[in-house]
Amino acid sequence: xxxxxxxRSWDVRRLPGAEGRTFLVTGGNAGIGYFTAEQxxxxxxxxxxxxxxxxxxxxxxASIRSRVPGARVRHLRxxxxxxxxxxxxxxxxxxxxxxxxxxxxxxxxxxxxxxxxQDGNELMFGTNHLGHFALTQWLAPLLSAAxxxxxxxxxxxxxxxxxxxxxxxxxxxxxxxxxxxxRSKLAQMxxxxxxxxxxxxxxxxxxxxxxxxxxxxxxxxxxxxxxHVTTVGERLSGLPAGLFVQGKxxxxxxxxxxxxxxxxxxxxxxxxxxxxxxxxxxxxxxYDNLTDTAVAARLWAVSCDLADxxxxxxxx
Length: 316
Description:
Elements: E1 22-26, H1 31-41, E2 46-51, H2 54-67, E3 72-77, H3 86-93, E4 100-103, H4 123-145, E5 150-154, H5 177-201, E6 207-211, E7 216-217, H6 232-238, E8 246-247, H7 248-251, H8 253-260, E9 269-274, E10 278-284, H9 293-307
Parallel strand pairs: 1-2, 1-4, 2-3, 4-5, 5-6, 6-9, 7-8
Antiparallel strand pairs: 9-10
Helix pairs in contact: 4-5, 4-9, 5-9
């Protein structure tokens, strides 16, 4: 995997037009997902915000429309913690094709107790990884119908120091919330790379790309009331950290580029330019703990069992 810079410049504030294309952003009502949706809406594309809460989605869409005149945005009821609901959600899209999906939605718990989805999966692993894994089988036909479909998986810098325990993927033993979160993001990233290997083997035109936002803090994020509000004190206290990390608007840049840039290739990892923590997006080497294809293949098999999905995930 190369980290060489692409051959032409990319301006994060002057994005290419994407009129006539449709993008789905899971968790598009807040955080990095919101800014991903806002930036993609500015290209003229149709942007679908996938999320559980209609009220939060309405607030996010109103904010986007106030900043992007003529924005084409809508909400899709999507609950990644309820695997049995995903097929109906995709049917509700009422699309013949989907140009890209950004797998951004996620849950992060800081303290015990361990919680489960209604399917009986540990909440973070079940939502962040298994939900997107299962969603892929229903989105695959729509993405394959697009001229150049893309699946963009948003991982995390927190995954860099973790290792999967595939003998206990549900963290039933020695549950530690932050570690479980990091492992759920690591699983997502493994999935994104393994998915691209399988897409290439199948001769598919769909690409799978893995990105991460680096260090993205609320205190460095521009206000988008009522979606995101920070006090003056919070903004001032976050300024020193701006030397090393960035806001969530900038954390969205790798995902946006992975959706739009024709030079992006399947199987790549993209992150911020400066130490993987801040700056404009660029391709970068995979984390060392993401290079073992045997681990990725085993995770795939475990995920199929836990999510009760076909191993081919609807891929051609």
